[in-house]
Specification:
Blueprint: H1 13-24, H2 27-33, E1 42-49, E2 52-59, H3 69-89, H4 93-100, E3 109-116, E4 119-124, H5 134-140, E5 147-151, H6 159-169, H7 180-188
Parallel strand pairs: 4-5
Antiparallel strand pairs: 1-2, 1-3, 3-4
């Protein structure tokens, strides 16, 4: 099957968050089930919810491996973010989701790739927010002690999208971003 031009299989955003919550927040459940003990490649976002920062992990051993950040944001993260913020902002979920949908580079994110049978690389933008640690991300993918963290300019938050998210959600909090000029310099190298 060719996955190049296919959309991600429909998975309810709640299912993704429940899976991420089980992996990241409930280590007892994780140990009991054994479901998340195997290392996995995947992608993640650190997303600002009304109650604080929460990492969303997308493990390729649980969901389709062809999904990238744009697909994950559009199909899972943006709808969930809109659902969680809509009540607080007294804004229709659909309107907020539509506004958030094109802003997939506004939050910290990263990618976990398998580099050898038992080693992984975590590509990141160097911008994890307070409350989301490397250990949390490593635990979500069961790669603790088996990975190397590497900065990748492609994974950096983009200033214009981050600013728009902050405006939409009424946030005064800031997180590290790359300006358009910085991004241009990175791609010229």
């Amino acid at each position: 099957m060719n996955f190049q031009n296919t959309k991600p299989e429909p998975v309810a955003p709640r299912a993704v968050v429940e899976a991420a919550t089980r992996v990241l927040i409930d280590p007892v459940q994780r140990k009991r089930s054994g479901k998340y003990d195997a290392p996995s490649a995947g992608i993640y976002y650190s997303v600002r919810f009304p109650e604080g920062w929460l990492p969303l992990a997308y493990r390729y051993d649980q969901f389709p491996a062809h999904v990238d950040h744009v697909d994950f944001w559009s199909a899972y993260a943006a709808p969930l973010l809109a659902e969680r913020w809509a009540v607080q902002l007294d804004e229709p979920v659909k309107r907020l989701q539509t506004a958030l949908d094109p802003l997939c580079y506004g939050f910290p994110r990263g990618r976990i790739g398998k580099v050898s049978p038992n080693r992984y690389a975590v590509l990141h933008g160097g911008d994890l927010p307070k409350g989301v640690t490397r250990r949390t991300i490593e635990s979500a993918f069961a790669i603790s002690g088996r990975c190397k963290w590497e900065r990748d300019s492609h994974e950096r938050c983009q200033e214009d999208e981050s600013s728009e998210i902050q405006r939409l959600l009424g946030l005064t909090e800031r997180w590290p971003v790359a300006s358009a000029a910085e991004m241009d310099r990175e791609f010229e190298r």
